[in-house]
Amino acid sequence: MQQTLSIIKPDGVKRGIIGEVIKRLEASGIRIVAMKMLHLSKAQAEGFYSVHRERPFFQSLTDFMSSGPVVVMVLEGEDVIQKYRTLMGATDYRKADEGTIRKDFATDIEKNVVHGSDAPETAAFEIGYFFNRLEIVH
Ligand code: ATP
Ligand code: MG
Fold this sequence. Notes:
This protein is α+β, with helices and mostly antiparallel strands. Helix content is 40%, strand content 19%.
């Protein structure tokens, strides 16, 4: 059984599509095993996205991620990392497949509604960044 970290980004929360994202997760058989809402500080957003430190979009991305509340979830299921990334669609919504969350709701390559871990190692780091063991149901 695999786990991954999902974030509904500030644009998704502001636009009132938390329920829509969760509905799609549940409909696809993915289980939510932890969930909370929080408003990241700039420093917390920088720590989370530290792998992108050298990218040209790092400042803008971390400003955006700390601009309002987010919903953070741990998702569980067989092959859930890939399964959830398929539901999200490509980073650039213009290249995302029909019926994906980003194709349907993203407005910008940066403001793309959702985050999902991209590998088991990044999932372990990202889950540990937000949740301790007691906060994840078994
Ligand atoms: P995420 O990590 O958020 O799930 P991803 O794995 O599809 O998305 P990454 O390459 O890890 O994409 O980029 C992280 C985030 O940085 C993207 O989701 C997007 O918000 C932002 N981003 C990525 N590329 C660009 C870009 N060229 N310009 C502006 N923002 C970008
Ligand atoms: Mg990524």
